[in-house]
Amino acid sequence: MTSVPAPVPSTSPADSDLVRAARGLPVSRTPVWFMRQAGRSLPEYRSLRAGTAMLEACQDPDMVTEITLQPVRRHGVDAAILFSDIVLPLLVAGVDLEIKAGIGPVIADPVRSVADVDALPGLEPEALGFLQTAVRQLVAELGPTPLIGFAGAPFTLATYLIEGGPSKEHARTKAFMYAEPEAWSRLLDKLAVSAAIFLRAQVDAGAVAVQLFDSWAGVLSAADYAERVLPFSRSVFDALGDRDVPRIHFGVGTGELLPLIGDAGADVVGVDWRIPLDEAARRVGPHRSLQGNLDPAVLLADRATVDREVRRVVEQGRAARGHVFNLGHGVLPDTDPGVLTHVTELVHELTAR
């Protein structure tokens, strides 16, 4: 049997190791990026953001460009992910919200009735000029490094709208889902349309991959997810049409949902730290790649522990069609940036073809 030679590093982001791994093609080394790599763990980020509110920063193209580039420069990661926030499309559409320190997104008037659903404003593509400006600037600066666009999935955005902010139980959300099925469908349909508009704007400006974050989908049973959530996540990916970009789909606590998350239209299924990647590969099947899944807390441990766990994730990731090394959730604020740089270098060293 003739072996397939590994490609030389590409000068095109559309043929980068990230995109190739997402499609199950040979890579020169396992690509690495980190959720929340741009942001609070970096002193240069904290310095730049001083005095600027989060959602204000997300709408400043020059600030978005610089913040997105910071971890690429510092860590040598194989992809940039657009600096933004999961609730930004809601704000741009006209929802009254703010991000409160120590709490997270807070909605002034939560969705609690059928009338509230019908009154929810929709996102207009014309309102996203700032976003496309930022993406175009980034593509020009990044050169061969791919840019990942992202959006929040309909269910996770619905939880913020209904709960009024972050929640552990998501009890109001699930109660509304059960009690008002028609209004629930209209709500998620509206949010799916907005998410698709948000992603299309990024892809059309030059992003070469997208990630849909369904952060809180893990609170659902597989049956509820399949019936009441999956169709709307699928519609987000379907709305990208023939735009030839890999689709990454990620949620927290979704070990029991992994096959369904893939069925929503993902090329890559993001996996949190609760399930080994070789088991995730078995659940997802041979037709999708995996992303993940080092526990972010490991980065706070000693170097020997970090190295051992990185090696484990790399080895287990070999069971997948393709593997994008990442964390099982976002970088923790207290993480030493030097550890992220080390992890990037170690993965590259372990997987160089």
Give an account of the 3D structure.
The structure is a single chain. With 353 residues, this protein is of the alpha/beta class. The protein has one domain: TIM Barrel (Alpha-Beta Barrel), CATH 3.20.20.210. It has 16 helices and 9 strands. The protein has a 7-stranded parallel beta sheet. Strand 8 (289-294), helix 15 and strand 9 (323-327) form a beta-alpha-beta unit. The protein is globular and about 55 Å long. The two termini are 18 Å apart. Residues 1-7 have low confidence and may be disordered.
Q: Topology of this protein?
A:
Elements: H1 17-22, H2 43-49, H3 54-57, H4 61-75, E1 80-81, H5 88-93, E2 97-100, E3 104-107, H6 114-119, H7 129-142, E4 147-152, H8 154-163, H9 171-179, H10 181-205, E5 209-213, H11 222-228, H12 230-238, E6 247-250, H13 258-263, E7 268-270, H14 277-284, E8 289-294, H15 303-317, E9 323-327, H16 337-351
Helix pairs in contact: 4-7, 7-10, 8-9, 8-10, 9-10, 10-12, 15-16
Brief rundown of the structure:
The chain has helices at residues 17-22, 43-49, 54-57, 61-75, 88-93, 114-119, 129-142, 154-163, 171-179, 181-205, 222-228, 230-238, 258-263, 277-284, 303-317, 337-351; strands at 80-81, 97-100, 104-107, 147-152, 209-213, 247-250, 268-270, 289-294, 323-327.
How many angstroms does the end-to-end distance come to? 18 Å
How many beta-strand elements? 9
Biggest sheet architecture: 7 strands, parallel
In the CATH hierarchy, the third-tier topology is known as TIM Barrel
Number of helices: 16
Rg from C-alpha positions? 19 Å
